[in-house]
Structure formats: structure tokens, C-alpha cells
Amino acid sequence: MRTGSEPVTARSALRARFWLSLWGVVWAVFGTTIFALTGHVGWAAACGVLWLIAAVDMTMILRHIRQGPHYQPGREVPPYRPAEDRPPWRRPPQRRHS
User: Which of 23, 51, 57, 66 is a Cys-bridge partner for 28, taking CB atoms 3.0 to 4.6 Å apart?
Assistant: First the structure.
């Protein structure tokens, strides 16, 4: 939801997320290899699952980087009206004029 208080030039840190994801893939491959060679099958499987998750995450990050910037509303677009903070049953009673 757009509130009007966002920075005008805000950008996602996709490149930082990519490098952190790559770091995770490298360590997961290393862990899978070491644990498989030493006979710790459970730990190797856990590192393999982590490897899969990090690889999927890295794929999605690369996809977002390749998509480029998306449309963002400009200054001429007013912010949305804030949503009602309280649920209907907690709102103060309305005064009725007779």
C-alpha cells in the first residue's frame, strides 16, 4: 500500500541478495560434499535441501534483476487513504442526534 512517505528513489537490494544467495549456495555445496564423504547422510541431505532452497532463491533474484524497474506512481498520484485502524466492534459508539 502506498502511504506517500516512501523515498522517491527507493530501490531493492537485489544485488546484495544475489551475493548472499550465492554465498549460501557455495556453503551448502561444500557442506553436502563434506558430509556425504564422511558418511553423515542426514546432514548431507539437510545441506542438499538448503542448497536447493538457495538455488531457487538465487534464480528468482536473477529473474527480478533481469526484469528491470517496474512502474512506480509519481508525485502527482495521491497516497491512499489509511485503512480504519480498529475493527468495527471496537470502534467508539456513534452519537445519535434526536
Answer: 51
Q: Angle at Cα 64 formed by Cα 58 and Cα 50, nearest 5°?
A: 20
Confidence of residue 2 (pLDDT cuts 50, 70, 90): low
Using the 8-state DSSP alphabet, how is residue 53 labeled?
H
Neighbours of 57 (CB within 10 A): 16
The per-residue pLDDT for 66 is: 86
Task: Tell whether the model's pLDDT for residue 28 goes beyond 90.
Answer: yes
